[in-house]
Structures are given as C-alpha cells and as structure tokens.
Amino acid sequence: MDHFQLKDGHLHCEDVPMSRIADEVGTPVYVYSKATLERHAAVFRDALAGVGRGEPLLAFAVKANPNLAVLKVLANQGYGADVVSVGELRRALAAGMEPAKIVFSGVGKTAAELRAALEAGIGQFNLESEEEGEELSEIASEMGMRARCALRINPDVDAGTHDKISTGKADNKFGTPIGDAASLYARLATVPGLEMRGLAMHIGSQLSDLAPLEAAFEKLGKLLKTLRESGQSVRQVDLGGGLGVPYKSGEILPSPGEYGAMVRRVTQDWDVSLAFEPGRVIAGNAGVLLTRVVRVKRGVVHPFVVVDAAMNDLARPAMYGAWHDFVAVEPDGEEMTANIVGPICETGDTFATGRQCDRLERGDLAIFRTAGAYGATMASSYNSRGFVAEVLVDGDRFAVVADRIAADSIMNAERVPDWL
Ligand SMILES: Cc1ncc(COP(=O)(O)O)c(C=O)c1O
Ligand SMILES: N[C@@H](CCCC[NH3+])C(=O)O
User: Which of 72, 110, 276, 297 is most buried, most CB within 10 Å of its CB?
Assistant: First the structure.
C-alpha cells in the first residue's frame, strides 16, 4: 500500500495533506511515512524469517537515512544498525539500537573510531583489510578487550549497477580479494585482541537483478567450506544490503520475498547465523521531497519548471543521473513536457529533462518520490542554501524531526581572523 496518495484530488502522506506540511514547515522539506517504514521493516523481516541459525540480525544501513526519528522507528521494529563512522554509531545508540546489534563497516575506520566502537560494545567489526585487523588488534589488546570480527571479502562480481555504487568488483576499494581471504582469515584468527567469527560481503547498491548477488553468495559459500575444512571457526555471515527499489512507476524489481527465497536456497547448508544490512529497500519509498515551483521559465525546447529544491537537497539526479518520479500535489488532469531544474548555478542542477509530468504553475507544490534513502543525508549547503527540514508523518499527525538549518547558522560558524 502506498502511503503517498491522492485523497480528494490532493496528495497526502498517510492522512496529512502535503499542503499542511508546506504551510507549517515551508519547502523544500523531506516527508517520511512512519507506516511505510514499519511496513517495509516487517516485509523484509518476514522475507528472511528463519534463514540461517536462529533469527537473522537486521542491521539498517544508517547511511541511507540517519535521521534519529527514522532510526527510532526501526529500533522499535527490532532492527540494529550498520554504521560506517562514529557519527553514525552515535546516532544508532542515541536512537536506542542495542550495541550488540550494531555492525561497523567501511574501508577507513580511524583508530579513534575503532576505540569508540569497542567502548560502545558493538556486536561486530567488518574488517576490510589486514592493515585494519592489525590496528584493531593493537587497540583492543591495549583496552584488554577482544573485538568480534568478520572479514569482508570482495568476490569480484559485477553487480550490474551504477559504477559509483558498485562495491564488489576487484578494482573497487572494498573488502579483501576473495583469493587472499582464506590465508588472511587464518592469520587474523591467531592475532591477539580479535575474535574472528565469520565473513561479510556487500557488492553494491540499487541491485535490480538477483543473479550477481547469488553468484557472489555462492563464492562466499565455497570460501566458508574451505575455511571450515582447514579448521577455522565460521559462525556468522553478513550478506550486506543492496536490494534495489523501483524509482519509476511501473518498474518491477526483485521483491524482498524473491531475495529471501534465493538467500534461503544458497545458504541452507552453511550452518551460520546470518546478518543483513538493508538501507534503500527500507527507507527509499518511505520518503519524498516536497518542493514548490518558484516559476516556470520559457525554454527553446521545453519550458523549465524551476523548483525551490536543488541538487544540494537531493543529489542523486546530479550524481548518478538518477530518475525520481515527479508529481503535482494538486494535479489538474493536464500534463506538460518540461525540464525540472533547481535554482543552483550549475547545469547539473537538473532533476529531469524533457519529462512528461503534471502541469505545474508558479506556486504549485510537487514531490520527488523515492527520496527517503540517500536524500537528506547527502545534502550539502552549496550556494549557501542551508539544509532542508525533515518531517515524520504518523496517521493524521506529523512532527518536524530535523529543523531546517538556515544559511545564516552555517555562516555564523565561520570566523574572519582579526588580521584581515
Ligand atoms: C557496507 C554496506 N552495507 C549496506 C549498504 C546499504 O545498501 P542499500 O541501501 O543498497 O541496501 C551499503 C551501501 O551500499 C554498504 O556500503
Ligand atoms: N548514494 C547512493 C548509494 C550509496 C550506497 C553506499 N554504500 C545512492 O543514492 O544511490
């Protein structure tokens, strides 16, 4: 069920009219549906119920949407967190996620971050390299602790997604090459301060085909057997995230159910506990970016619909050429073909070119759909535009869950030295 729907000709999020949010909070603003987040959390959990030993660990990828209220909704659903910085770790803890359900990924964890995560008592470090393992070993030994670790492997599989978000090819910076993994695992298992518990993998994001994932999981399964045959203990496997979501209406992608069936088939004889790090599949379609048309400018080929949101608020179209459905809050039944652009002084600040969309005029409200993941979190203050607000809707009520940060607040954090 879509919680962003027209009711009496006016787009609502659950039972709240979008215009009420625009009037009270201003635009642009991210709007999240609590009911959608909860539904996605439940669908993903049900799809993976009973895979592996015990119940799997579901660690939401905080990078997709780190808003504290969003994390709290997911913590209430029993989710843990996949974090990639001490900032994300603090957020997961502040939202009430249990330390034991937190995994720490990422290729550049600093010594200070490793220490902070050990102090917090997180469940697992996903080690990316020998060098990181050695550093963590030293820090944990100094602290008189043993860090629970998995070795992240790079299976050299092309996930078939955008190059910038592919992470499992040999020349991507992530993980340990699968050919080196058995010997490195054996070595790290002898190092003080580390407890090697298993393997981890994440081959990319917005995956629209399960075949590369399955091929990567099969490779991991072979490695697991090799490790066990050589006497290593492997109890935990983290299969990462990556499941794609539809961005265009009518687009069909593999469902969590199909993903779960594939995981069940491939892992049935692994005899390990499984963990997953879903991000986009939980949050993507739970959020939209609400914006107002500043003006419609005549163009040579198409008119330009200039909206008050820009590439600093929603970077995906400019960064990856990504498509976001764009619809009017009060469609009048007429359509137009337009270029949808923001106010930033770059041609790249274009959300869509030659897009068939609802007819819009100056002052009208519209939304970019599927903006709940990798939306607000990738915002910048380029062109001194400040940071957008975020709102969480629950039935007929809503709350501002992130204040708008005005450009002046950012300016006020700057100093001109007295020698200028
Ligand atoms: C290590 C890791 N885990 C999980 C995710 C979440 O991915 P997605 O949002 O595609 O599910 C990412 C991002 O791609 C990641 O880098
Ligand atoms: N930022 C990317 C996803 C990155 C995934 C990071 N591991 C996107 O919007 O699609």
Answer: 276
Same domain as 303, residue 269: no
Residue 391 CA to residue 375 CA, distance in Å, equals 13
Please answer whether residues 77 and 55 qualify as being in contact, where contact means their C-beta atoms are separated by less than 8 angstroms. no
Do 222 and 234 lie in one domain? The reply is: yes
How distant, in Å, are the alpha carbons of 7, 81, 90, 201, 206 from that of 65? 27, 11, 14, 21, 15
* In a shared domain, residues 65 and 100: yes
Q: 169-181: per-residue pLDDT in tens? A: 888 899 999 999 9
Give this prediction's pTM.
Answer: 0.97
DSSP assignment string, 156-195: -----S-GGGB--STTSSSSEEHHHHHHHHHHHTTSTTEE
Q: Give me the amino acid identity at 136.
A: L
User: Both 363 and 392 in a single domain?
Assistant: yes
Average pLDDT in the 338-365 region?
Answer: 98
| Ligand 1 center–CA 172 separation, angstroms | 14
> What's 361's domain CATH number?
2.40.37.10
Ligand 1 pocket check for 240: Cβ under 6 Å: yes
Among protein residues, the one with the nearest Cα to ligand 2's atom 8 is 374
Q: Which residues of 393-417 are buried (b: 16+ CB within 10 A; e: fewer)?
A: bbeeebeebbebeeeeeeeeeeeee
Atom of ligand 1 nearest to the CA of 126: 1
| Residue range 243-262, pLDDT digits in tens | 999 999 999 999 999 999 99
Q: Is 240 in the same domain as 329?
A: no
104 shares its domain with 71: yes
Report which ligand 1 atom has the smallest distance to the Cα of 207: 10
Domain count, the chain: 2
* H helix or E strand, kind and range, residue 227: helix 210-229
Q: Say whether 13 is catalytic.
A: no
